[in-house]
C-alpha cells in the first residue's frame, strides 16, 4: 500500500469546485483560536481557491485580506472573480462566506514565480535566531492556553528565548517576536502556505505587555519565492501603536537564506 | 467677495454622486506621469468616494489598491459597495473605471480617527531630513523630465541631497529616497490626501541605479492620524528586490512629529 503523503495542510485547505468560480471548503476545528478560526488559515483556504481560478498563475504575489467577521469551524464557500488576466499576472477578487455572512474579502495578484527574473538585490538581514535546540518549543505552553488555542497544535514552533518573556510575565517591550516554524507533520509548505505563516505567531503586542485579543482589520502578504523545504524563520515586529491600532510586520525566511514573504497587518490595539 | 479657498487637491478629487453608490469624477491631466495618471492621485479620488459612501466614518484606516490598467485623464466612475458597517469601522469595496475598463480595484476600512484611543507607543524614528533650505527643490528637475511628468508641478518637493544622487547619475545604492512635501498651493491635506502622498515620490529603485517605469501591482496605506497642517516628511525605502518585484515602504510624518501614515507597495522591477 502506498504511504499517505497528503499533508495536514493540504487536507485542511482542500477545496472543491462548485461552478461559476465558487469553491466549497470546510474550515477545520483544529485552527480555532479563542472565539474564531485563525485568520491566516482562512486566508490560505481563499488563496488556494484563487490559485484554482487562474491555473496558469499558481503563486500569490500579493494578497490583501479584509476581515469582516470571525470565521467558525465548518462549511464555507469561496467565491472568486477574475478581474484581469494578462500574460504575466492575474488579479482576482474573492470572498469567503459562511451561511450567507462574509468572513473575509480579498484582492490578490497571482503569477508564476518560477518564470520571474531571478535577479536578487536585498539589503534585508536574516533574523538572528538561536539554533533550534536553544529555542523554546510552543509545546511548553500551559495546558489552559493550548485548550483555547488548538491552532498551536498545527505547528512545531521554537521561540527565540529573547522574545518570549511575555510567556512568563516579563515582556521585553521591544515589540518583537520571532520563531522557527514548521508544520506539525513535517510536510513542507508551498507558496500559498506562506499566507498562513504570516499570521501564525501570537500577536506582537504580547511583547509590549499588552496581552489580549488583537483583531486583524487587514493583512497584506507579498510572496517573493517558493519556499525551500525545511524550517522557516518567522519574525514579527511592530513600530507604531497609535490611533487605537498597530501594524505588525512579518518576514519569512527559508532554509536557502531567502526572504520568501513579507507581510504587514493592521490590527486593533488590545483593550487594557 | 470671499476669497477662493478651494484647494487644487479638493478640485482635482471632486466627485458627484450618481446614485447606487456610484460617483462621477474627472481625472485631471495635471497628474499625468509618463503614459498614465499617478496611481496615488487615482487612489485619492477613490478614497474620497469611499468616504462619501460611509459618512460617519470619514477617515481611511487601511486602503489596499490593486492596479489593473493605466488611468487616463478624463471622466471616470467610482462604484462603491459597503461590505460591512459596524459601530467603529466600515469596510468598503470600490472600483474606478473609465469607458467600461476597470483601472483599480480597492478594499478599504474607514473609521473616525478622532474617536480612536489617543494612546501612542512608537519605536519608529522620524526621518533625519536636513532643513528645507538645504534640500533640493523638485522644481530644479530638467525641463524634459517635467514635460513627461506634469505631476511634479502638483507638489513643492524638497529632496534630501543625500538621496538625490540618481538625478545626476550617482545613485547611492541604498534604496532610499526622502523629501519634504507640501501641495503647490500650500493648502494642507486631509487624511484621504495621505493616500496620494504615499505614491508621490519617484520610484525608490532610482536610488538603486535602476531608472525606468516601475508599475505598481498593489499599494496598501495605513493612516494613523489626521495630519497637522504644514510640510510633511516622506520617506521611501526598499529592502528586497527579488522575484522580478520590489517592495516600497513609505512613511509620512507631520509637523507635530507623528507617523501619520505607513504604506507598502509591490511593484514590477524596472527592465534594465
Molecular structure report:
The structure is a homodimer of 272-residue chains. Chain A is built from 4 helices and 17 strands. In chain A, the strands form 2 sheets. In chain A, strands 1, 2, 5, 6, 7, 8, 10, 11, 12, 13, 14, 15, 16 and 17 form a 14-stranded antiparallel sheet that branches. The model of chain A has no long low-confidence stretch (mean pLDDT 94). Chain A has a single domain, classed as Beta Barrel (Porin), CATH 2.40.160.210. The radius of gyration of chain A is 18 Å and the shape is globular. Chain A starts with 7 loop residues before the first helix and ends with a strand. Chain A is mainly β. In chain A, strand 1 and strand 2 form a beta hairpin. The interface between A and B is large, with 50 and 50 residues. Strand 15 of chain A pairs antiparallel with strand 9 of chain B. Chains A, B: Pfam families: 4HBT_3, 4HBT_3C. Chains A, B: It comes from Nocardioides oleivorans. Chains A, B: This is Thioesterase family protein. Chains A, B: InterPro entries: ACOT8-like_C (IPR049450), Acyl-CoA_hotdog (IPR042171), HotDog_dom_sf (IPR029069), Sec_Metab_Biosynth-Assoc (IPR052389), TesB_ACOT8-like_N (IPR049449).
Relevant terms:
Thioesterase family protein (chains A, B), 14-stranded antiparallel beta sheet, Sec_Metab_Biosynth-Assoc (chains A, B), 4 helices, ACOT8-like_C (chains A, B), homodimer, TesB_ACOT8-like_N (chains A, B)
Amino acid at each position: 500500500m502506498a504511504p499517505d503523503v497528503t499533508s495536514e495542510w493540504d487536507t485542511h485547505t482542500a477545496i472543491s469546485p462548485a461552478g461559476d468560480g465558487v469553491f466549497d471548503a470546510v474550515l477545520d476545528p483544529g485552527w480555532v483560536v479563542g472565539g474564531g478560526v485563525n485568520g491566516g488559515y482562512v486566508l490560505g483556504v481563499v488563496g488556494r481557491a484563487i490559485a484554482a481560478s487562474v491555473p496558469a498563475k499558481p503563486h500569490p504575489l500579493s494578497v490583501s485580506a479584509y476581515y469582516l467577521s470571525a470565521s467558525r469551524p465548518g462549511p464555507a464557500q469561496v467565491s472568486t472573480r477574475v478581474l484581469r488576466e494578462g500574460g504575466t499576472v492575474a488579479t482576482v477578487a474573492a470572498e469567503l462566506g459562511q451561511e450567507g455572512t462574509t468572513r473575509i474579502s480579498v484582492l490578490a495578484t497571482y503569477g508564476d514565480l518560477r518564470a520571474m527574473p531571478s535577479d536578487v538585490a536585498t539589503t534585508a538581514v536574516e533574523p538572528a535566531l538561536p539554533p533550534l535546540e536553544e529555542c523554546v518549543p510552543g509545546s511548553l505552553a500551559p495546558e489552559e492556553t493550548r485548550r483555547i488555542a488548538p491552532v498551536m497544535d498545527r505547528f512545531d514552533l521554537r521561540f527565540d528565548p529573547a522574545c518570549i518573556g511575555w510567556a512568563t510575565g516579563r515582556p521585553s517591550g521591544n515589540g518583537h517576536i520571532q520563531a522557527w516554524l514548521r508544520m506539525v507533520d513535517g510536510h513542507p509548505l508551498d507558496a500559498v502556505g506562506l499566507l498562513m505563516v504570516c499570521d501564525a505567531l501570537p500577536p506582537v503586542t504580547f511583547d509590549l505587555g499588552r496581552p489580549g485579543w488583537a483583531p486583524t482589520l487587514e493583512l497584506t502578504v507579498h510572496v517573493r519565492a517558493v519556499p525551500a523545504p525545511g524550517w522557516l524563520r518567522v519574525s514579527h515586529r511592530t513600530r507604531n501603536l497609535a490611533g487605537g491600532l498597530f501594524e505588525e510586520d512579518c518576514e519569512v525566511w527559508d532554509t536557502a537564506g531567502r526572504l520568501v514573504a513579507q507581510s504587514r497587518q493592521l490590527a486593533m490595539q488590545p483593550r487594557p
